[in-house]
Amino acid sequence: MVIWNLIRRCNLTCEHCYSISADKDFPGELNTDEVFKVMDDLKAARVPVLILSGGEPLLRPDIFDIARRAKGMGFYVGLSSNGTLIDESNIDAIDGIGFDYVGVSLDGIGATHDHFRRKEGAFEASMQASACAASAASRSACATP
Ligand code: SF4
């Protein structure tokens, strides 16, 4: 299994972030063609599972192209998100990919989560994302970092 940090950018600044993310573009990240080439290499190496992560993977404009290609190549494909950007505007696109797994990370309940995420309302947004995913019949799961 490869947990693939496709982008360092993130809309949150969690206390525990190991990717030292921030809400800005970082230089030197793979473009779409380069991601596809790495994907080919991973397939050749017989990697069965790709978990698309970050940063916040939904901040990549090409995330659905990447996910669609990965599914087409036969990978088990997961999306690992902080959940705050999953809503009615993109749930159909997420559901349409047919992700095998959608993970929304949680650090605790309510204010505890918001404290670690350094964002008031992050817990509520993540819970709504989970509800959205569930109602779209995607598999959803809770994850800790
Ligand atoms: S959501 Fe993940 S990538 Fe974003 S700041 Fe928090 S730990 Fe880092």
Tell me what you see in this structure.
This protein has 145 residues and is of the alpha/beta class. The chain has a single domain, classed as Aldolase class I (TIM Barrel, Alpha-Beta Barrel). Helices cover 35% and strands 17% of the residues. It is built from five helices and five strands; from the N terminus they run βαβαβαβααβ. The protein has a five-stranded parallel β-sheet with strand order 1-2-3-4-5, with helices on one face. It is globular, with a radius of gyration of 15 Å. Bound molecules: iron/sulfur cluster. Iron/sulfur cluster (SF4) is lined by residues 10, 12-14, 17, 19, 21, 54-56, 82, 145.
Concise structural overview:
This protein has 145 residues and is of the alpha/beta class.
